[in-house]
């Protein structure tokens, strides 16, 4: 009789914070759909339609800049309160990370 195998640990959820540096995995692509005049995210068997604000954030998720750095730049660029921008960006990035659109930069 063989010994029972230990159950596999549940996958851990990445919690996005201000220090997190995110990048889109190679199998996901941010593309401009010229025919429809909008940006889309192409993922395996899925398509996402980010709004204009999300596109500006996603373009900056290059694995080099932290979420805080992105929020600070957008806050200055759009003359918006940093705390509001940070909260909105963290919420959006957490949602996209949970869906597998973004991953933590290596």
Provide the descriptors you would attach to this structure in a database record.
three-stranded antiparallel β-sheet; alpha+beta; 6 strands; 23% strand; 106 residues; globular
Enumerate the spans where pLDDT stays under 50 for 5 or more consecutive residues.
none
Task: Assign the structural class, choosing from mainly alpha, mainly beta, alpha/beta, alpha+beta, or little secondary structure.
Answer: alpha+beta
Largest sheet: 3 strands, antiparallel
- Share in β-strands: 15-25%
Overall strand count: 6
The outline comes out as globular
Please state the CA-atom Rg, rounded to the nearest Å.
17 Å
Proportion of residues in helical segments? 25-40%
Tally of contiguous helical segments: 3
On the 0-100 scale, what is the average pLDDT?
94
Helix and strand element order: EEEEHEHHE
Q: Could you give the distance between the termini?
A: 42 Å
Query: Strand order across the biggest sheet?
Result: 5-1-6
Question: Quick summary of this structure?
Answer:
This protein has 106 residues and is of the alpha+beta class.
């Amino acid at each position: 009789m063989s010994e029972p195998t230990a159950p596999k640990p549940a996958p851990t959820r990445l919690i996005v914070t201000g220090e997190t540096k995110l990048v889109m995995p190679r199998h996901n692509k941010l593309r401009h759909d010229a025919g429809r005049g909008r940006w889309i995210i192409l993922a395996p068997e899925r398509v996402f339609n980010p709004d204009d604000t999300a596109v500006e954030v996603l373009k900056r998720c290059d694995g080099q800049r932290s979420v805080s750095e992105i929020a600070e730049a957008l806050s200055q660029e759009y003359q918006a309160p940093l705390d509001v921008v940070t909260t909105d960006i963290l919420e959006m990035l957490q949602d996209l990370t949970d869906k597998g659109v973004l991953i933590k930069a290596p």
